[in-house]
Amino acid sequence: MPQFIRLDSRNRYEIQIQGCFDASWLDWFDTADLTVEIIDAQTPITRLSNIVTDQVGLVGLLRRLHGLGVVLVSVRTEAA
Description:
Structural class: alpha+beta
Largest sheet: 4 strands, antiparallel
Helix content: 10-25%
Number of helices: 1
Radius of gyration: 13 Å
CATH architecture: 2-Layer Sandwich
Strand order of the largest sheet: 2-3-1-4
CATH class: Alpha Beta
Distance between the termini: 14 Å
Order of helices and strands: EEEHE
Shape: globular
């Protein structure tokens, strides 16, 4: 059965971006774990997992990344 998410509930997310993540940005992601993978002919993909926030916080993080010109690869919920 699918997990239903409410706008005001805190959930666990994973965000993948193209390129390497600047370590100075890590403060924005309080509990995140950072992994950099090299895929598709040496293209770096950074995976930020264990991000715990509500929908408002998630949108804020995505807007901040967008403002920095970061290419978003994926956003998904993680199992609790």
